[in-house]
Amino acid sequence: xxxxxxxxxxxxxxxxxxxxxxxxxxxxxxxxxxxxxxxxxxxxxxxxxxxxxxxxxxxxxxxxxxxxxxxxxxxxxxxxxxxxxxxxxxxxxxxxxxxxxxxxxxxxxxxxxxxxxxxxxxxxxxxxxxxxxxxxxxxxxxxxxxxxxxxxxxxxxxxxxxxxxxxxxxxxxxxxxxxxxxxxxxxxxxxxxxxxxxxxxxxxxxxxxxxxxxxxxxxxxxxxxxxxxxxxxxxxxxxxxxxxxxxxxxxxxxxxxxxxxxxxxxxxxxxxxxxxxxxxxxxxxxxxxxxxxxxxxxxxxxxxxxxxxxxxxxxxxxxxxxxxxxxxxxxxxxxxxxxxxxxxxxxxxxxxxxxxxxxxxxxxxxxxxxxxxxxxxxxxxxxxxxxxxxxxxxxxxxxxxxxxxxxx
Length: 408
What we know:
Elements: H1 11-42, H2 45-56, H3 58-70, H4 75-98, H5 104-132, H6 138-166, H7 171-188, H8 205-217, H9 220-249, H10 254-281, H11 284-298, H12 308-336, H13 342-355, H14 357-371, H15 373-392, H16 395-398
Helix pairs in contact: 1-2, 1-5, 1-6, 1-7, 2-5, 2-9, 2-14, 3-5, 3-8, 3-13, 4-5, 4-7, 5-13, 6-10, 6-12, 8-13, 9-10, 9-12, 9-13, 9-14, 9-15, 10-12, 11-12, 11-15, 14-15
């Protein structure tokens, strides 16, 4: 077997990776600070949950056409323009604060605009990754992505809450704007083309979208994984507000809440570091079934934790499991999708995977406000158990061909 070069020697991948890690620090900070800001303005968990739903909602509207367009367009140019737009949107919040003009409507508008641009950016980034690294390096790249985002999830929440508490409510959004600028600079320095040479398309957009739909629907394993990831993301979208409300009920301040999210990030780094090794030692089905069951077992612990210190421990333990799932399913998926279909198939996958997120974010706010946080956790625990049972009995997951598992 040929020697596999370390991923850190791939200059263009490291530029892509570092820029996205920095941007994720800023975005993660805002993800925690926006609910705190809305709760401070309105005292309404339902209003805070709606902001998360609005950010995730554009995937339902734009995902399929964006996937087809990404397979036509210059992926790097799309990513740069999206970062510019996101920087302007986020920067509008501190500008409005400076003139005492910030409203809940503007916060919702920023969430919607930023979420819409994220759809374009995210699909382009995923489609570009197999161009920046070799197929053999995909598991390494997936693991590095998870580790980098794990670091961002450690630094971002505490970074955001410290800025929010110590320097003012507008400062985290200024910092987030700066991180988008850093991402733009890193993208501009990448030399590798983000797509292969393409013939001019003579088909209409609907035909191209349909081709991506047919490919995914014709692969029962990837189809199920899209629905499973969507089901898991429904819960993931609910978790930030659940953790914030639980911690506040336990007497945690904003800084302690940031530390809880950072603990989840520490777990995420550990999970990403072992994800590639686990992938090589076990079959795809063994990993996916085990990970989903572990999440189903850990989630109800939120019902019984007596203090926010133990809440951080549970969040960190749960955070360990998610990156293992992501590394395995992400590298498996990218390795078998043809480059000309990367944008379209991944857009269909992400429509299903991310389409449940606005439901989870909005549902968490409604359940917490009307019934309380403990019943909300109970509802999501039941959903998690259903996913675990369905995955265990899915023959396509259990019998997934090991030849498709990169690095095995």
